Every structure is written in C-alpha cells, then in structure tokens.
Amino acid sequence: MTDIADILQREGVIDNNRWAFIGSVLALKARSELKPGEYSFQKNASLRDVIGTIVEGKVVQHAVTIPEGLTSEQILARLSENDIFAGAVKEMPREGTLLPETYKFPRGTTRDQVIARMQQSQKRVLAEIWERRSPDIPIKTPEQLVTLASIVEKETGKADERSRVAAVFVNRLRQKIKLQSDPTIIYGLVGGRGTLGRPIKRSEIQQPSPYNTYVVDGLPPGPIANPGRASLEAAANPARTRDLFFVADGTGGHAFTETYDQHQKNVAKLRAMEKQIQNDTVEPADDTPPAATSAPADTSPTATTPKPAPAKKPARVAPPARQGAAQPTTASPPVVQR
What we know:
Elements: H1 2-10, H2 18-27, H3 47-56, E1 61-65, H4 72-81, E2 102-106, H5 111-131, H6 142-155, H7 162-174, H8 182-190, H9 202-205, H10 229-236, E3 245-248, E4 254-257, H11 260-281
Antiparallel strand pairs: 1-2, 3-4
Helix pairs in contact: 1-2, 5-10, 6-7, 6-10, 7-10
C-alpha cells in the first residue's frame, strides 16, 4: 500500500501527505481491494475518488486498430511492436481467423489474450453473417465464405465496390470460370508476408500454386488475408449483376463489365491514361522549350498505425493489360462460358 501511495504522490495525484491516502484506505477497509493497473485520474480528484477508481479497477483502455486485409503474420508483427502488450504468441493463428477491428485493451494484456479475443470476435461475426447469407451463392461452408471475402478485401478498398467485386467472383464460380485474381498469385508467392514489393512477372501468372486462381479452378484452399466485416457481408450477399470482368479505372476504383470485348476497351482506356501520366511526368530536355500550357495529372491513443488508404490495388504499368479479376493473358483468349 505504501508503494501505491509513493507512486500517486510522485505523479502528483495526491499531495505530499501520503499518510492521508494510507489512512483513508484503512478507514474505508479497502486495503485488500486495491487492484494493480494503469489509471487515469481527474485533476484535483478527492482521496475518496482516487481510492474508488483503484478499488473498482477502472484501468486505462488503449485503443488498438487492426486494419482489414492484413495476413495473420502481419497482424502478429504489429502486436509484437506494440509495447502495451506482454508475452509472446505461442502459435501462429490460421489465416482468416482474426477479425480486423478497433479493440481496447489495458496495458499488460498478453498477446495470446489479444489473439483469442480477435478469434472470438471473428467466430461471432462470421456466424451472424453466415446465417443471413444469400441462399443461392455457390459457397458451401463458412470457411469458403471467409476465403472469398479475403479475395474481395484484397481486390478493393472502396466500400461501394465490395459487393460488386464479390458478384464478379460469384458469377465466375457459377459459370466455372477461373477467378483470375492477382492477390492470389501474390499470396502463393510470399504467403503470410503479404506484399510482393514489385509488379507480378508474366512468368508468375501461370506459376503453379494452390492459391494461384489463374491456375486452379474455383476458390483457393484457404483465405489469403483476414477480411473485415464489410467484405464478409459482401461475399455473403453480393450484388445482383452479370459482371464477369473488372479493371482499375485509374481513379482508385474499377470499371465492371459483362463482356470481354467491353473489358478490353476499359483496359485500353487504362493503358492510355497510364501512358498520359507517364508523358506528363517526363521532364523535358534542356533544349526543349516549355509547353505553352500544362495540366497536372489527377492524382484516446491508438497503439498501431492508422488504416491504410482504401485504394488497395493501384493501376500497374507492367506487365500490360493485367488488372482486376478475369484479365486474361495475351497467350490465350479468355475462357468465358455463356
């Protein structure tokens, strides 16, 4: 008890007479009820209020945000870097079993306790969404729903696109067309590391991997990330469309189409836009006079980094004509069953 009084006096919570605190604790018969932890007190709080806060265990709750679309390995890395947590994680959680969300934890919470809470939240949310899923989606199990949602999560960060992206993949599953999702290529190459750090090579498009949906039929064997609630909802209740293709539109979103011909036109628009941006950013030679006019191209504490910007899939310049689901390679025409 004297240790507590010393800390409170050192931090300026109580005045220099620590014996007044000790006497008050004894008078209130609260000595055995004082709880350890990190506390925040109002300025000039009374001794009764200070003692009451410690007895009730009203410890400081730290907000920790886990963004959507991270792999389990990436989430564990964030938890390891956060000094409000204690201990090491005994076992890597399975991909897709953690719910991205903003949580609140007291200092000293073990990392295993954090993982357990995220897994419990994921089970609860998944069960709720599975119960109200559309009855005609070609998804047989909750685990498959998480896998589809993880692909949707990695394909777009725009809230108004998720259900439409999900519809493209659901339509392809129904027609037994390969999903052709670039993020599945990346997961097959780097696994839980999550990011490739460079454009996908042409040779990697058809590189055999259980996760590469340019090679395998249907869904990959498991999730490629931990999807958030919104992507799970989109996968369970996709938009009612006939879209089979989408490609980046150059503004952070995507253009959706039902036919390959229209899709190719959208790809051409994207390439022209990319080329224009490249031309606009090339500096003129020293002997080249400047152009008359030019137009710029459009371009409570939290213990983790903020959620990344929503445009998860920027337009890639190389290799050409590969963006979004269902973008066939130049070596073979698209397989589209009508």
